[in-house]
Amino acid sequence: MPEFTSRRGLLFGTAAVGAGALLTGCTSNESSDEPASNDQPAADDKPGKPVTIGFAGPQADHGWLNAINDNAKNRAKKYKDVTLEITEGSNDTAQQIGQIETLINKKVDVLVVLPADGKALTQVGLQAMRAGIPVVNLDRIFNSPQAYRCWIGGDNYGMGLNAGHYIGEKLKDKKNARVIELAGLDNLELTKQRTQGFDAALKNYPNIKKVARQAAEFTVESGQAKMSQLLQAQSKFDALWNHDDDQGVGALRAIDQAGRDDFLMVGGAGALSAFQAIKADDGVLKATVLYPPTMAASAIDLARALGQGKGVGGLAEFEIPASLTLYSAVVDKENVDQYMPTGFK
């Protein structure tokens, strides 16, 4: 994820600390230097024009996706002027399209959509926009910018880039260093982007060679099975990057069962269990690279601002931006306490 600096860095770069740190307030001209936690009230919680927000996401069958739903619900509760219409969530694209069409027919003021498949749901995004309902496209992007008013999400390429640089700096003085990668679902574009970013970072370290890559399925079970295969195939390596902290739970089980502690591990996403392991510092997991689910809370902020015809506090523009890319911070023992409140289960 691209790194922002100065005031813009304060506004966007610390998003993972809490949605309030991403958007200091969609209508407020005041800012705060204090990072916000998920429990803090929204910066601009003074009631305004009532807004009904329709929220449609995929089935919460994964820790990160469940955190997405929780962030959206909890953020909406902080606003007295927001009514949240939330769908049950589905990984079936036809069913999710039907759920969104129901929200369109209800004439919600704004839609927040995390599509199970961005390409497959582009048409229903276009349908909402043509009906005069602005769409906040969350994370998995629609194929056409005409299908959304604003996109907010993570930077998968930057996630891999930052993981690679972290590992690179740890191994830069080691001759003939070897690294392996436990990726996610290879049929997802985000997985390919994470690998591309990781490989790009490693090119800066000629002493490091990636010797193996295995794709898992973002589940504990797949993480354990695929990590076992990697450990059997690679008797010696110096670092592992695992794309996802949920599958990392299984990966760590496999590592413990194999009795291996001769390498460092970097995770991905920002699960509470990963933060706790990093803080304990008694195993191979030394860091994780964030893909903050607080983006859903910020999507509610943006939807409310759109519904009330307001902009983002801290920016000169009258309108909210067309896109917001969150920064994928590296969390290690030095800063884990700061991010601990944002860890998802």
From TrEMBL:
Location of the region described as Disordered in the Swiss-Prot/TrEMBL record: 26-49
Keywords: Signal
Localization per Swiss-Prot or TrEMBL: Cell envelope
Pfam families: Peripla_BP_4 (PF13407)
Periplasmic binding protein domain boundaries: 53-310
InterPro entries per UniProt: Peripla_BP_I, SBP_2_dom, TAT_signal
Compositionally biased spans, kind Polar residues: 26-40
Highest taxon above the source species: Bacteria
Family of this protein: Belongs to the bacterial solute-binding protein 2 family.
Stated name of the protein: Substrate-binding domain-containing protein
